[in-house]
């Protein structure tokens, strides 16, 4: 069936519940913008649910590239203040992207078509402590001036390296990258 009219594809964040698909209380769709985004979209609130609307046009064979959709986690404290909200947001981290379009039929009725993605896990795993598996130098000064490469697991932009030097008198000198002449570069 070839339609000549333009339709609107609605995208929102739904629950991952197998029994009942409904808008998610703790996550909402977020409109992504930028140089690499090619799809025009508009944000709307429909019955308290944030929805992205994306035009489906006959000139594009009713196809779009979904490069403008993000998932935003709402603050638990804000959601739990809503009257009647009993869902536990800290445990409810699975969502689905829901895609819906309303197609007008002859006679004025609308047929709604809806499909959803597979469940998406939105939680961040508890950060494990960084582990140094290898270093390329056995010793160097805590004052800097040499390059030491540390290789390991679970390094993040928040990870910090503290160098400690044991002196002859059994006292320790500690240097932190923020206060010493040390440069720490992270590679992910």
Automatic annotation (TrEMBL):
Is Transcription given among the entry's keywords?
yes
Please list which residues make up the signal peptide.
Answer: none
Alphabetized Pfam families for the sequence: RHD_dimer, RHD_DNA_bind
Claim: Transcription is one of the keywords in the record: yes
Q: Where in the cell is it found?
A: Nucleus
Q: Which domain of life is it from?
A: Eukaryota
Recorded protein name is RHD domain-containing protein
Instruction: Spell out the InterPro entries in the cross-references.
Output: Ig-like_fold (IPR013783), Ig_E-set (IPR014756), NFAT (IPR008366), p53-like_TF_DNA-bd_sf (IPR008967), RHD_dimer (IPR032397), RHD_DNA_bind_dom (IPR011539), RHD_DNA_bind_dom_sf (IPR037059)
Where does the record place the RHD domain? 1-127
Name the keywords, alphabetized.
DNA-binding, Nucleus, Phosphoprotein, Transcription, Transcription regulation
Protein species of origin:
Periophthalmus magnuspinnatus
Q: What are its GO biological-process terms?
A: calcineurin-NFAT signaling cascade; nervous system development
GO CC annotations, alphabetized = nucleus; transcription regulator complex
Main localisation, per the record? nucleus
Molecular function per GO: DNA-binding transcription factor activity, RNA polymerase II-specific; RNA polymerase II cis-regulatory region sequence-specific DNA binding
């Amino acid at each position: 069936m070839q339609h000549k009219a333009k339709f609107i594809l609605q995208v929102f964040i739904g629950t991952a519940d197998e029994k009942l698909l409904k808008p998610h209380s703790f996550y909402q769709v977020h409109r992504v913008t930028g140089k690499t985004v090619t799809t025009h979209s508009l944000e709307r609130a429909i019955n308290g649910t944030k929805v992205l609307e994306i035009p489906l046009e006959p000139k594009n064979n009713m196809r779009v590239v979904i490069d403008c959709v993000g998932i935003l986690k709402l603050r638990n404290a804000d959601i739990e203040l809503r009257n009647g909200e009993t869902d536990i947001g800290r445990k409810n981290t699975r969502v689905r992207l829901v895609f819906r379009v309303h197609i007008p039929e002859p006679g004025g009725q609308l047929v709604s078509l809806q499909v959803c993605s597979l469940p998406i896990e939105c939680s961040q795993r508890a950060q494990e402590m960084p582990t140094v598996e290898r270093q390329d130098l056995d010793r160097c000064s805590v004052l800097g001036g040499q390059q030491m490469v540390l290789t390991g697991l679970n390094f993040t932009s928040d990870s910090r390296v503290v160098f400690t030097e044991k002196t002859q008198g059994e006292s320790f000198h500690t240097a932190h990258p923020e206060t010493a002449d040390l440069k720490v570069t992270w590679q992910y």
